Amino acid sequence: MLDRVGEVVTSRERLRALLDAVVGLSADLDLRSTLERIVAAACRLAGARYAALGVVGPDRQLTEFITHGIDARTQARIGDLPHGRGVLGLLIADPRPVRMPDITRHPQSYGFPPNHPPMHGFLGAPIRIRDQVFGNLYLAEKQGASEFTDDDEEIVVALAAAAGVIIENARLFAVARRRERWLAAAAEITGVLLGEVRRTDALRLIARRAREVAEAEVALVLLYDDEAGQFTVEVAEVPDGGNTDNLVGTVLVAADTDFIEPVTRRRQAVVESLAKAAPWPVPVGGGPALISPLTAGDALHGVLVVAFPAGQGAESDVELTLLATFAGQAALALERARAQEEREMLAVLEDRERIARDLHDVVIQRLFAMGLQLQTVAPLAGRAEVRQRLDATVDDLDSTIRDIRRAIFELRTPMTAALRTEIRNMVAGCAEALGYRPTLEMSGPVDSAVPDPLRPDLLAVLGEALSNVVRHARASRVTVGVDVRDGELVIRVADDGVGADPAHARGGLVNLRERAERWGGDLDVGPGESAGTTIVWRVPLHDR
Which residues of 386-400 are buried (b: 16+ CB within 10 A; e: fewer)? Predict the structure, then answer.
C-alpha cells in the first residue's frame, strides 16, 4: 500500500512538474529561446543527463541541433553537429517514440565521434506541428538508473505534444512580427514616394529597408535592358554601410545569370547561392537569395534581390510574399522618377521654345532694325572715321544676329540629340566665319562613354576653342579631334595661324583650364607642329 501511495505521489509530482514546464515554455515566444527551454524541460522531467532537439529540414536532414548538458568546450571539441543519420535518423524515417537501454548496440548505430561523452540509455520522441514533424527530442543517460522507463516515455511524449503547439505559436508570432516590420518599412517608403522622387535615392532606401527587415546580408537592385540583354547593378546595400562602389554599375549578360527567368516569366524565384547566380566581377554573399521582378503594369524594370549569409536558410514562403511588396514599390519609384523626368524635360522644352520664339520675333527684329538705321545714317556722316565706326557697328550687329540665330537653332535642337551630331553642327557653324570648314575627326564611343553631366562642358570647351581661332588665329586650316579611348576624353583643336603665348592666357583659356580641373583633367596649350597653336583638353571618364 505504501509503495502504491508513493507511486501516486511521484506521478502527481511529475504531472505538476510537466504542467509547470508547459507554463514556463509559454512565457516567451522567441523561437530560439523556446526551443532551448523545451530541451532543458525534457532533460529535467525525464531525469536525463543529456538532451537535444533536432529540427528536421525539407531534405529530411537536421538543420538545427540544440543541446543541453554538454558544455561549449566539449561541444567545440566534438566538432560538427549531427545531420540525422544513424539512430537519430530512426525518428526522422519513422516519427514514433523510441526507447532503448543501450544505443551503442543498435544495428544502425554509427558510434560517437571523438571527444563525445559516453551515452547508453536513449529516449526519443517526435515533435509535431499539426500533421508535420517539426523535429525530435533526444534524451540520453537516465540519472540514477540504467535506462528510461515507461513513465519517462509518456511524460516526454506529452511534453513533445505541448511543445508542438508552443513552437507553432512562436513561429506564428515570429511571422507576425516580421510582417509588422515589413509593413512599417513599406509605409515609410510609401511616404517617400508621395513626394519628389529621386530614383537612385528611392531605390537605395528600398534596398536598405528590405535587407534590414529580412535580416539579410546583401540587397541588390538590378535594372534590365531588354535590347542589350543585360543587367546593371543600380543599387547595392550591405550591413554597416559597407563599401559597394566596386559592385554598383556592374554589367551582367542576362543569359549568363539566374535572374533572367524571373524577368522573362515575371515571377519570383529562390536561388541556392547568390555567388553562383551570376559571373560577378567582385565577391558577393554566397548564401541563398530571393529574387522578385520589378514590374509596374506592363513595364518591366529589373529585379530586387535579397541574399542571406551562407548556411542560413531563407523563409521563402513568407519572405517572397512580403518582398513582392517592396519590389512593387521599387518599380513604382522607377515609374514615378521617369514620369517626373519627362515632366521636367517637357517644361524645359517649352521654356526653350518660348525663349527661341522671343529671340527670333523680338530681339533679332530689333537688332536688324538698328542695323538698317545705322546703314541709312552712315552715308550722312561727314568724317570717314565716323562712317568706319558705323560700318563696324553694323558688322557687329550682323555677327550678333548670327550668334542669336545659332542659339535659337540650339534651343530648338532635341535634347536627346546624339553628341556626335551636336559636335558636327558646332564645327559646321564655324565655316561661315572662317571661310572654310574645319576638319573634324571623332573616334571611340563618344555618344555612349561621355556621361550626361560632362556633355555641356565638352560643347562649351569646343565652342570656346573654335571661337578663339575665329577671332585671333587668322588661320587657313583648322583640325578638330574628339577622341574617347583608355577611359579618357581628349579634345584637340589645332590651327596654322599666328600662334599664341600660353603665358598670357586670356579669360577664355582660363575658363577652359577651370573646366578641365573640375573633372580632374588638364589643359595643354602649345605651338603646332609647323605653325599656329594646338589646344589639348583632356579629362578622365572613370568613376563618372
Answer: eeeebeeebeebeee
Continuous H helices in 306-363: 316-358
Task: Name the residue among 154, 99, 151, 95 with its Cα closest to residue 128.
Answer: 95
Of 238, 234, 198, give the one whose Cα is nearest residue 216. 238
Q: pLDDT of 33-92, one tens digit each? A: 878 888 888 888 888 898 888 888 777 777 788 888 888 888 778 777 776 677 777 778
Candidates 427, 230, 348; CA nearest to 419 is: 427
Phi, psi for residue 214 in degrees, rounded to 5 = -80, -5
Structurally, the chain folds into a number of domains equal to 3
Extended beta strands in 196-317, E state? 218-225, 230-237, 251-253, 269-271, 289-296, 299-307
* 22 lies in the same domain as 132: yes
Query: 521: helix, coil or strand?
Result: coil
Looking at the structure, tell me whether residues 217 and 297 fall in a common domain: yes
**Among candidates 286, 163, 320, which has minimal Cα distance to 218?**
286
Please state the rounded mean pLDDT for residues 499-507. Answer: 60
The parent domain of residue 247 ranges over 193-332
Backbone phi, psi, residue 159, to 5°: -65, -40
Rounded Cα–Cα distance for residues 355 and 408 (Å): 8
What SS3 state is found at 329?
helix
Give tens-digit pLDDT for 129-146: 877 888 888 888 888 888
State pTM to two decimals.
0.50
CATH number reported for the structural domain that contains residue 153 in this entry = 3.30.450.40
Query: Quick one: CA dihedral 167, 168, 173, 179, positive or negative?
Result: positive
Indicate if 312 and 255 belong to the same structural domain.
Answer: yes
Are residues 197 and 171 part of one domain?
no
**Beta-ladder partners of 62:** 56
